[in-house]
Amino acid sequence: TARLATTDAAAVMKLGRTFPTVRRALERSGRLADARYVERATMSAERTGSLGEVDPSSVPYFSVAVLPSRIDTPGTPDAPDASASGRPGEVVVVGLGPAGPLWLTPEARGELAAAEDLVGYTTYLDRVPVRPGQRRHPSDNKVEAERAEFALDLARRGRRVAVVSSGDPGVFAMATAVLEAASEEPYRDVPVRVLPGMTAAHAAAARAGAPLGHDYAVVSLSDRLKPWEVIAERLRAAAAADLVLALYNPGSRSRVWQVGKARELLLEHRAPDTPVVLGRDIGGPEESVRIIRLADLDPADVDMRTILLIGSSQTRTARRGDGTEIVWTPRRYPEG
């Protein structure tokens, strides 16, 4: 299914009894409408047509499923608008994972290949391979609402749109913006799907060991969309409950004090030697993973490409035989 979704053109030969399986794969990959059926080509009993309209019981061994190339077909930048075909548009919000192609799911890869329009923050769009016939619509990272409405407008005109988002699109990302806009007129009837992606927290945790092995909370330190007082209260509550914390958006060029303040709040409830994982550019070319003490957390070491995992009272570290330091939180919590 993933290969059919991502390929430009394909042929599946000698269908026979495998026809229902091939048809299901084409349908799941979003390519059934493009697929053509050819039976006994060049013979007197030749039959051709749309594969989706073929009766499975009538398919002989000598038949072929064909996916024509998308190059120089409707959907190219110079092609007429898709609304002329009368087919419905759709918005699919796709999670790219933290960085690189290895953590992109087959489902997400297929939707990116099938999309006619790609919409997203410029940095994230640059991570998606350029494909002939696709339109790319980059924008700034502070115009999420406008980006969502733009994507929905394209879908209203019959376009198949992929909105790209780093990590998982439902975690401090574009899925919320799209669904919020899609809940209002004139977008209520536009189909919207959200595809999950690997989160930065899970990727960083895997690199360090298993610090999220027990209950944990996820908090964004950015006060751009909520007041710092709300963030501080949530940090206190999570720390008092002895939850491991995954802290997103810890700092930027314009936000330099939040990490220091968060450290002070957490030290009211956590020991100074509580393990902290600093994961930066996980999966990217500048990947860095460090394990430090909470008391040694320096705001100067943190930026927007960093995620912090703050251990609980039960989180442990150890040095393996090869010298590698690992961190984990036991699944069992002491009674009393």
List strands and helices in order, with pairings:
Layout: H1 2-6, E1 10-13, H2 19-28, E2 36-39, E3 47-50, E4 63-67, E5 90-95, H3 106-114, E6 117-121, H4 122-125, E7 135-139, H5 144-156, E8 160-165, H6 174-182, E9 192-195, H7 200-208, E10 209-210, E11 216-220, H8 228-240, E12 244-248, H9 258-267, E13 275-280, E14 288-293, E15 306-310, E16 316-319, E17 325-328
Helix pairs in contact: 5-6
Short précis:
Pathway: Cofactor biosynthesis; adenosylcobalamin biosynthesis. By secondary structure, the chain is α/β, with parallel strands linked by helices.
Order of helices and strands: HEHEEEEHEHEHEHEHEEHEHEEEEE
Mean pLDDT: 89
Question: Count the helices. How many?
Answer: 9
How far is it from the N-terminal to the C-terminal residue, by CA?
51 Å
CATH class of the largest domain: Alpha Beta
Query: Which secondary-structure class do the elements indicate?
Result: alpha/beta
Shape: elongated
The CATH architecture of the largest domain comes to 2-Layer Sandwich
Read across the widest sheet, the strand sequence of neighbours is 7-6-8-5-9
**Poorly predicted segments:** 72-85
Can you summarize the main beta sheet? 5 strands, parallel
Instruction: Assign the CATH superfamily of the largest domain.
Output: Tetrapyrrole methylase, C-terminal domain
SS elements, strand count: 17
Number of domains: 3
Q: In percent, how much strand structure appears in the residues?
A: 15-25%
Q: Do you know the CATH topology of the largest domain?
A: Methyltransferase, Cobalt-precorrin-4 Transmethylase, Domain 2
Computed over alpha carbons, the radius of gyration is 25 Å
Helix share, percent: 10-25%
